[in-house]
């Protein structure tokens, strides 16, 4: 679990540098504390005012082992770090919607991106 958090925190710190990413949250097994020694993936969601381009995301993520078997898109990015699969989802969200999301969803917001950038 510590490796998953270390990798997730590092990727979140990098991706949160994109101008339009307002917050980054863990979702999935890490967020729900079900990750264990057999877990091999980290799921993150980036809440955005506008989708960052693939080029912009990769500028901040830097040189990574991007998963070439899965197509990156406006909504997703897939990479491997130290044999850990990192799946990043991108969602458009406004401040009022973000507030609603924060109060109704099961997730773990990362401190590197809080408070949301305005």
Mean of all residue-level pLDDT scores: 78
Helix and strand pattern = HEEHEEEHE
In total, how many beta strands? 6
- The shape is globular
Query: Which value, in Å, is the CA radius of gyration?
Result: 13 Å
CATH architecture verdict:
2-Layer Sandwich
CATH C-level class: Alpha Beta
User: CATH homologous superfamily name?
Assistant: Beta Polymerase, domain 2
Strand order of the largest sheet: 3-4-5-2-1-6
Helix count? 3
Describe the model.
By secondary structure, the protein is an alpha+beta fold. The protein has three helices and six strands, in the order αββαβββαβ. It is 27% helix and 29% strand. Strands 3-4-5-2-1-6 form a six-stranded mixed β-sheet, covered by helices on one side. A hairpin with a 2-residue loop joins strand 4 and strand 5. The C terminus is likely disordered.
Short description:
Helices cover 27% and strands 29% of the residues. By secondary structure, the chain is of the alpha+beta class.
Topology:
Elements: H1 2-15, E1 21-27, E2 41-48, H2 54-61, E3 65-66, E4 76-81, E5 84-92, H3 95-104, E6 108-109
Parallel strand pairs: 2-5
Antiparallel strand pairs: 1-2, 1-6, 3-4, 4-5
């Amino acid at each position: 679990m510590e490796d998953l958090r270390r990798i997730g925190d590092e990727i979140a710190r990098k991706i949160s540098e994109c101008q339009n990413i307002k917050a980054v949250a863990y979702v999935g097994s890490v967020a729900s504390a079900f990750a264990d020694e057999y877990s091999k993936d980290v799921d993150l969601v980036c809440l955005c005012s506008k989708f960052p381009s693939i080029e912009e995301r990769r500028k901040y993520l830097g040189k990574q082992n991007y998963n070439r078997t899965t197509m990156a898109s406006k909504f997703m990015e897939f990479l491997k770090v130290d044999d850990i699969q990192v799946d990043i989802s991108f969602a458009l969200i406004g401040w009022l919607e973000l507030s609603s999301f924060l109060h109704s969803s099961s997730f773990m917001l990362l401190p590197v991106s809080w408070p949301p950038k305005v």
